[in-house]
Amino acid sequence: MKEIIIKDLSFSYKNKKVFSKVNLAIDDGAFVHILGPSGSGKSTFAKILVGILPFEGYICLNRTVLNKKNMASLHRRVAYVSENFYEDFLFRTVLEEIIYTLENMGYRKSDIAQHISSIVSLFHFEQDLNKNSNDLTLSKKAMVKLASVLICCPKILILDSLFSYMDFDDKKRAVRILKKYNKDKKLIILHITNNVEDILLGTDVLLLYHESCLFYCKKDEIYDHEKEFHSANVSLPFMVSLSKKLSYYSLVQSSILNQKEMVNVLWK
Fold this sequence. Notes:
alpha/beta; 35% helix; Rossmann fold; six-stranded mixed beta sheet
C-alpha cells in the first residue's frame, strides 16, 4: 500500500523554482534515504511534507490529505527532526525533554510512565535522564531528539541529516532502533543524508536533481542505475562501485552490498 502519495508537487522560493510537477509514491514500511546535490531541495522537501512550507499539488500522508484542515491530525502521525534539532531543546533535563512530547499530545500520566520506561531501556538512557541537556554531546542530543519523536510511535518519521551528528556507536544503535520500528511497526522513515554509504542502511533511495527531476528505486536496484546517480551528481556506494568493477572481470555476477558476503564470494 502506498502511504505517501505526491502528485504534481510544485514549489518556488521567490523566483527560483525548486519543484515542478513532481510525482512520487512510497510504500508502507519503506526506509528511504534522500540524496542530492546542494540546492536540490532535500530540506525543502521535508518541510513541505510536514506542512511548514506551502505548496501546489496534492500530497497524501498515511491516507490523509495534507492541508490546513488536517494538520492537527497529521502532527500526531508525522514526526520531524530538523537539521537544526540541537536548537530545539526546550527543557533542562533529558527526562523533561522526552516527557514533553507525550504531555503535549495529551497522554495520561500512567501511560507516560510506561512509555518512558520502554524508550529509556531501548536507548540505554538509564544514566542520562537527569543530565542537563546543555551538557550533552551533539551525538547524544541527536539520540535524545530521536527518542522524543519515536516515543509517540508516529506512522511517518522524517529526519534531516540526523546521522551526520552521531558518533559511530550512537549511529549504530540509532540504525538498529529505526530498523526495529520500521520492521515491527511498519514505520516509514525518510532520512536526508549527504553520505552515500547511508543508502545501504535502508530499503529505498530517492535522488533529487532539480525541479521535476527525481529518481526513486529499491536499494537492491542501485547496481543497474549508475546513470541516474551520475546525473544527480551522487557517487555510488563503495560496495556497489566495487561490485561493478569486479563484474568487468567476471569475479562477481551481480551487486553485493554486504562486505562479509563479498569476502566470502572472492575467497571461494
